[in-house]
Design a protein that fits this description.
The complex is a heterodimer of chains A (254) and B (486). With 254 residues, chain A is α/β, with parallel strands linked by helices. Chain A has a single domain, classed as Rossmann fold (3-Layer(aba) Sandwich), CATH 3.40.50.620. Chain A is built from seven helices and eleven strands. In chain A, helix 2 packs across helix 6. Chain A starts with a strand and ends with a helix. In chain B, the strands form three sheets. In chain B, strands 11-8-10-9-13-14-12 form a seven-stranded antiparallel β-sheet, with helices on both faces. Chain B has a five-stranded antiparallel β-sheet with strand order 3-4-7-5-6. In chain B, strands 1-2 form a two-stranded antiparallel ribbon. In chain B, strand 5 and strand 6 form a beta hairpin. In chain B, helix 11 runs antiparallel to helix 13. The longest helix of chain B is centred in the middle third of the chain and has 17 residues. Classes of the chains: A alpha/beta (254), B alpha+beta (486). At the A-B interface, strand 3 and helix 6 of A face helix 1, strand 8, helix 13, strand 11 and helix 14 of B.
Chain lengths: 254, 486
């Protein structure tokens, strides 16, 4: 009995870009900066495609919340092998205030509407590093959660997930439906091949305004300022051991 | 923090694998061949009438040069300067000078007439798309500096992280962007150079058009430091494109590569910014020696097509039409497309890191020829037939869009037998096809005696007259570029 897998993806600033802070310290410069799919979400998409290839999953759906450009991210997911996509349209103004709390409410509704068996997403986004969306969505749905997955297997009607934790690897069994978040070592995402890139253009991409989901988008926290990390101060070179000891004493550390 | 973690894991090679796959990649430890002394590898080169460096000379330089300038004379400091990066040869220089200003370069040349070396001082100014900078600036730093002004350098090479613009100009470096932005003979607007007698020649024009007298700066571009030392450069910088996209395609035969090139020129036209190729053996070398991953299924040839421009929608439309066309015409076996920076960089690595991957085999016989496209790949098959199992591999890759082929042969150590099987056979072959025995790498020490394969006697005589005029004592980069006097 194959499952329906819903994969959530976020469009973020490409990790190879040199990020710059805006002069007014309200955030980072995003205008004209290259964006791409959050790398952990890419890993989630890859995992979903592999699940379909091994017949564990039947239908794959990708979802992304944000302005129009999210559709590029969804097309990438479709090119990798996802069957259809849903774009939850959010205005630029609302998107500026959007936080994991809002996203998790939307994802919970989408998961219910689509009758998903598994919600798969990256463990965190590389722009805010929140690591909250998967967990909050699971709580809202009252579904079990298996986070930081480095391996996912199906065992009977349950999922056997290996998690990367501080002490090493933890294997847990979760009942379906469940939320699973992908960690770095889960897989290595494929390059979308040309025929699939072309086919992706014809795959269904549904657009739904965020108002359809009845979620209150007012922000729960306010960013006070964003600053660059302090510039690294130059070090000192010393010629002798005595000099080193002298400098350490001056600095009051010996 | 996580972004850095991702950068490290993606750019590091063969490091992470899904737990279901055992770590089977054997990453070859680069055991580079120790280079032979130049006197042993190139026995025909005889030392000129030059004095030997003494401790008085060294002290004199320490007095002439400022405190920030460096005078290096101990053997471990000199090793790096004396050794060719590819490991072909090792010189025996006893002294390296690192002057900070053009005046210092001039003083060194004048007072003791010893070959000056490159400088390290950073700094460049740009205005209206023209950059003026000192010769010691690293190409990658200039590129970063220009990014804020939304400009870019007209050249790009694999060694951008360490090569200096003075060296690029002196060697007329070609690189990955020549297809779109032309050669340095066109994009360099001015040069400041120090002559052998210490004279400082200021041809540092910043005018796009300047037809006043003979264009002397052209003498310093590509003459490999044998006519003067380039100390400053003014260069025309194109506007940085807002959108870049790369397609990586696999195809059946070299004939297909040529047809794809033609399609690209027709359909992508002004948006085409790079067209590179590599063969299956180059890809294998990348996989075996660096653990890089082939994004496509195995193909005999791979082509990297880059488009860039001011409007991503416009470029994407053209690129998609091109890709649809090459697929419909069955010119490609497989392909992928990258629009995000990180993926674009990953694809470029497959082409830019081949040089590095070859070195891990041991010794690399490196050739760079220009050939008419119809003969382009034949020579590779001829060489494979000729060398058979005497060598580890014969690979070819290059700027096929410019007709430039980089042919490389590797063996675990240098073998005179292999070298003799390659040269002069390869040069004769190239000459017969009316190609160039050195498309962009120059002549140096390795190829100068073969200059006659690509230039007429009259031309070589004229070159010698110019050399004699500008450097009568032959102190500027001796033994290189022109054939030894018979």
């Amino acid at each position: 009995m194959s499952m329906r897998v819903l994969v959530a993806c976020k469009r973020v600033i490409d990790y190879a870009v040199k990020v710059r802070v805006k002069p007014d310290k309200s955030g980072v410069v995003t205008e004209g900066v290259k964006h791409s799919m959050n790398p952990f979400d890419e890993i989630a998409v890859e995992e979903a495609v592999r699940m379909k290839e091994s017949k564990v999953a039947g239908e794959l759906i990708a979802v992304s919340c944000g302005p129009k450009q999210c559709q590029e991210t969804l097309r990438t997911a479709l090119a990798m092998g996802i069957d259809r996509a849903i774009h939850v349209e959010v205005s630029d103004a609302d998107y500026a205030n959007m936080q994991p709390f809002h996203v998790s409410k939307i994802l919970a509704k989408v998961a219910q509407e689509e009758k998903a068996d598994i919600l798969l997403l990256g463990k965190q986004a590389i722009d805010d590093d929140c690591n909250q969306t998967g967990q909050m969505t699971a709580a809202l749905l009252d579904w079990p959660q298996a986070t930081f997955a480095s391996a996912i297997l199906k065992e009977g009607s349950d999922m056997l997930v290996t998690r990367e934790v501080d002490g090493g690897l933890e294997r847990i069994k979760v009942k379906v439906p469940a939320v699973i978040t992908a960690d770095l070592r889960l897989n290595e995402p494929r390059y979308a091949t040309l025929p699939n890139i072309m086919k992706a253009k014809k795959k269904p991409l549904a657009k739904k305004p965020v108002s359809d989901f009845g979620v209150d988008l007012s922000p729960r926290h306010q960013v006070l300022s964003v600053e660059e990390p302090p510039v690294r101060k130059a070090g000192h070179k010393v010629e002798t051991v005595e000099e080193l000891v002298g400098k350490l004493k001056e600095a009051g550390v010996v | 923090m996580l972004r850095r973690q991702l950068q490290l894991t993606r750019l590091r090679v063969g490091v992470w694998h899904p737990s279901s796959r055992p770590f089977t990649h054997s990453r070859r430890v680069a055991v580079r061949a120790k280079p032979q002394d130049t006197s042993a590898r190139f026995p025909h080169v005889k030392r000129g009438q030059f004095a030997e460096v003494t401790s008085e000379d060294v002290n004199m330089f320490r007095n002439i040069l400022s405190k920030e300038s460096k005078v290096l004379s101990s053997s471990d400091e000199l090793d790096g300067y004396n050794t060719d990066w590819i490991g072909i040869a090792k010189g025996n220089s006893q002294l390296v000078l690192r002057p900070q200003t053009t005046k210092e370069v001039s003083a060194c040349a004048q007072v003791l007439q010893l070959p000056p070396s490159c400088r390290r001082t950073p700094g460049g100014k740009h205005r209206v798309g023209i950059l003026v900078c000192q010769a010691g600036c690293v190409l990658a730093s200039l590129e970063d500096h220009l990014t804020d002004a939304e400009l870019m350098m007209p050249i790009d090479l694999g060694s951008k992280g360490s090569c200096r613009i003075g060296g690029n100009v002196s060697t007329n470096a070609g690189g990955l962007r020549l297809l779109r932005y032309g050669s340095l003979h066109g994009s360099v607007l001015g040069v400041e150079a120090v002559l052998a007698n210490g004279d400082i020649v200021d041809c540092l024009s910043t005018m796009r058009k300047d037809n006043t007298g003979y264009d002397m700066k052209q003498l310093f571009i590509g003459s490999e430091g044998t006519l003067g030392v380039v100390t400053a450069v003014s260069i025309l910088c194109p506007v940085r494109p807002k959108s870049t996209q790369v397609a990586f395609l696999g195809c059946e035969s070299f004939d297909m590569v040529q047809r794809i090139l033609w399609q690209a020129k027709q359909m992508l036209s002004e948006t085409l910014s790079a067209f590179e190729f590599l063969d299956a053996q180059s890809m294998t070398c990348n996989e075996e020696n660096l653990g890089l991953k082939n994004p496509l299924k195995e193909s005999p040839f791979y082509v990297l097509v880059e488009v860039s421009g001011s409007n991503s929608n416009h470029d994407e439309e053209k690129l998609n039409a091109f890709l649809q066309s090459v697929m419909d015409k069955s010119l490609v076996l497989d392909g992928t497309l990258a629009t995000g920076i990180s993926k674009i960089q990953e694809l470029w690595q497959l082409r830019e890191r081949i040089t590095e991957s070859l070195l891990a085999d041991g010794y690399n016989y490196k050739y760079d020829i220009s050939l008419p496209l119809t003969h382009y790949y034949d020579v590779v098959q001829v060489m494979r037939e000729r060398l058979r199992d005497r060598v580890t591999r014969v690979v070819a890759y290059g700027h096929v869009g410019d007709g430039n082929l980089h042919l490389n042969v590797t063996t675990p150590q240098y073998s005179a037998e292999v070298a003799q099987l390659i040269e002069p056979f390869l040069y004769e072959y190239t000459s017969k096809c009316r190609g160039s025995i050195s498309a962009e790498h120059g002549m140096g020490l390795m190829k100068n005696r073969y200059l006659h394969y690509s230039k007429s006697d009259a031309a070589i005589r004229l070159m010698r007259s110019v050399k004699t005029l500008m450097d009568p004592h032959g102190i500027l980069n001796p033994y290189k570029t022109l054939p030894p006097d018979t």
